[in-house]
Amino acid sequence: MSKKGKVLVAMSGGIDSSVAAMLLHDEGYEVIGLTMKTWDYASSGGSRKTTGCCSLDDINDARQLAVEMGFHHIILDIREEFGDAIIDNFVDEYLAGRTPNPCVLCNTHIKWDALLRRADQLGCEFIATGHYAQVRQENGRHIISKGLDENKDQSYVLWGLSQESLARTMFPLGGFSKPEIRKMALDRGYEELSKKGESFEICFVPDNDYRGFLKRRVEGLEEKVNGGDFLNMDGNVIGKHQGYPFYTIGQRRGLEVAFGDPRYVIKINPESNTVVLGTKEDLNKKTVFVRNPNFIKYKDLKNEMEALSKIRYKDRGANSSISTTKDGRIKIEFFEDVQGVAPGQSAVFYEGNDLIGGGFIDKED
Questions:
Q1: What contacts 2, CB < 8 A, 6 or more positions away?
Q2: pLDDT < 50: residue spans in the chain
Q3: Where in the chain is the domain with CATH 3.40.50.620?
Q4: Which of 238, 298, 329, 341 has its Cα between 20 and 30 A from that of 261?
Q5: pLDDT tens for residues 105-119?
Q6: Which CATH architecture has domain 6-130+172-194?
Q7: In angstroms, rounded to a whole number, what is the distance separating the alpha carbons of residues 123 and 30?
Q8: CATH superfamily label, 283-361
Q9: For the purposes of burial, counting CB atoms within 10 Å of the CB of 192, is it exposed (0-12), middle (13-18) or buried (19 or more)?
Q10: Catalytic residue check, 103
Q11: DSSP summary character for residue 156
């Protein structure tokens, strides 16, 4: 056994997780690669070879890399578990008029749990992923901070992890930029891997058409919701829509209603199958409530504090104050208006580069 210990590395077949495994192997860890089969991509149409997200080709790429580097590789089929927890929630959230965050749920409830269970079975002290984030121990807490590459930082999707999970987690890529990772792969002779593209879409919606996915998943959905009303901010009917689950907060394109000036989705009402449209200014909000919070840097939030809060993955963040409400939610008070606040998405709070915690954006009070 390596003096450094054994580490189970989540390998999707993409460049990031592959280089993470390479780095740990080079550092002297006893590496075991594990690829999770989460979805039957053949049923979705296409192998998605260039996306780097666990298609059959990607699974084969991960296995081939492990063989060439001389460490063990395992394929773990978690399709049933993934479908029950992630896909069902994805559908339920849209039917509730919210915009789901499947990657956060998958990390928190599926991937980390699956990795840690298998790590225990294999005698691995640590698990590792290819996320661009960093973790350290300080004041008795395991703290996530942003990855060095601000453009690739993925700490936003990790807010739901427990302290127990973080105690055994390694992020080998946290101190590198994406160009550096590509160069590492190229320098090791993996030219094709170094050119692999990014995967931005939801893994089980490979064509990025979530509306089509919902229609296929929920029998008779189109007939049940088609023909609902578009309302203006005063509650007056101004047109017909194709069904409330097929719209998201802030959406402007694809409304199929002409007004002479831009209109945006402001609110979604599943009970009445109505969608409220307004101007860009109507999207402005300063107060946001967050449910089911999880704290990373601190055990809890006893006092109001200032934080940089992000309301979506690619958001740069905005200055705010955060505090705990009597019902256990987090109240965010932004110092300036923010736009595109969508219930169901994650709101994440930072102190400098450190992740304070996060939660799911709740409906308006």
A1: 28, 29, 30
A2: 45-52
A3: 6-130+172-194
A4: 341
A5: 888 888 999 999 999
A6: 3-Layer(aba) Sandwich (3.40)
A7: 11
A8: Translation factors (2.40.30.10)
A9: exposed
A10: no
A11: G
Question: Active site includes 106?
Answer: yes
Ramachandran angles phi, psi of 69, nearest 5°:
-90, -10
Which secondary-structure segment (H or E) carries 89? Answer: helix 88-95
The pLDDT score that the predictor gives to residue 50 is 40
Residue extent(s) of CATH 2.30.30.280 domains in the chain: 225-280
Q: Whole-angstrom Cα distance, residue 55 to residue 57? A: 5
pLDDT digits (tens, 9 = 90+) for 166-218: 999 999 999 999 999 999 999 999 888 888 877 666 888 877 889 999 999 99
Q: What CATH class has 225-280?
A: mainly beta
pTM: 0.91
Residue 192 tokens, joined = 């094709």
Residues of the chain with CATH 2.40.30.10: 283-361
- CA–CA dist 45, 237 (Å, integer): 39
How much is the pLDDT for 257? 81
Query: How is residue 259 annotated by DSSP?
Result: -
**Active-site position among 53, 54, 106, 124:** 106
User: pLDDT digit string (tens) for 114-153?
Assistant: 999 999 999 999 999 999 999 999 999 999 999 999 899 9
Neighbour order of strands in the sheet with 6-10: 72-77, 30-37, 6-10, 126-128, 169-170
Residue 250: predicted pLDDT:
94
331: tokens are 């109240």
